[in-house]
Write a structure and sequence with these properties.
Blueprint lengths: L6 E7 L2 E7 L5 H6 L20 E4 L2 E4 L12 E3 L13 H8 L9 H14 L5 H7 L11 H15 L4
Parallel strand pairs: 1-5
Antiparallel strand pairs: 1-2, 3-4, 3-5
Helix pairs in contact: 2-5
C-alpha cells in the first residue's frame, strides 16, 4: 500500500501554534478532528451544503470541509472549542443559544455559532434579515431557525452592552 506524500504545515488553532504533517488532499476538517482532536467541528454532509463544519479562518466563516489543510498553513483557525476556555464562562453566543433554545440535537450548533460569530464581528447590530442571510449556508433540521435568530440577536445585544 502506497502512502501519499505529506507536507509539514504550521497553523494557529484556537490561539495555539501547531506544526503537523498534512497530505495534499487532506481537508481542514479532517486535520481539526483527527490529529488535533477538535471534534466540535462536525462533518454533516461531505458536500459543503450543511455548514456543520464551519470554523473561522483568519476571522472569516468558512466550511472546513471545502478547505484543504495546506491552504490553512500560516493562518489562524478558530473552532467552537476556541470561543471560550474550559474553565471560563461561555461565549455570549453559546450562552444565548442555550437561553433562547437555539439548539435541539446540537449537531448544527457549532457551525451556526461560528457563522454568527463572524457576522457579529463585522456587524455588531444586525437586523433579522442580515442574521438570516449570514446563516444561509447552515442547515438545521430541528429548530426552524426562529430561536437561532433570537439567540444571535440576544448575543448581539449582550456583546454590544444593551438592548437591540
Amino acid at each position: 500500500m502506497e502512502t501519499s506524500p505529506t507536507t509539514s504545515i504550521t497553523l494557529t488553532v484556537n490561539g495555539r501554534a501547531h506544526t503537523l504533517d498534512a497530505e495534499p488532499r487532506q481537508l481542514l476538517v479532517e486535520l481539526l478532528r483527527g490529529p488535533l482532536g477538535l471534534t466540535g467541528t462536525h462533518v454533516g454532509c461531505d458536500t459543503s451544503q450543511c455548514g456543520a463544519c464551519t470554523v473561522l479562518l483568519d476571522g472569516q466563516a468558512v466550511k472546513s470541509c471545502s478547505v484543504l489543510a495546506v491552504q490553512a498553513a500560516g493562518r489562524a483557525v478558530t473552532t467552537i472549542e476556541g470561543l471560550s476556555a474550559l474553565d471560563a464562562p461561555l461565549h455570549p453566543l453559546q450562552d444565548a443559544f442555550s437561553a433562547c433554545h437555539g439548539l435541539q440535537c446540537g449537531f448544527c450548533t457549532p457551525g451556526m455559532v461560528m457563522s454568527a460569530c463572524a457576522l457579529l464581528a463585522e456587524n455588531p447590530r444586525p437586523t433579522d434579515a442580515q442574521i438570516q442571510h449570514a446563516l444561509e449556508g447552515n442547515l438545521c433540521r430541528c429548530t426552524g431557525y426562529v430561536n437561532i435568530v433570537s439567540a444571535v440577536k440576544q448575543a448581539a445585544a449582550t456583546m454590544a452592552g444593551g438592548a437591540q
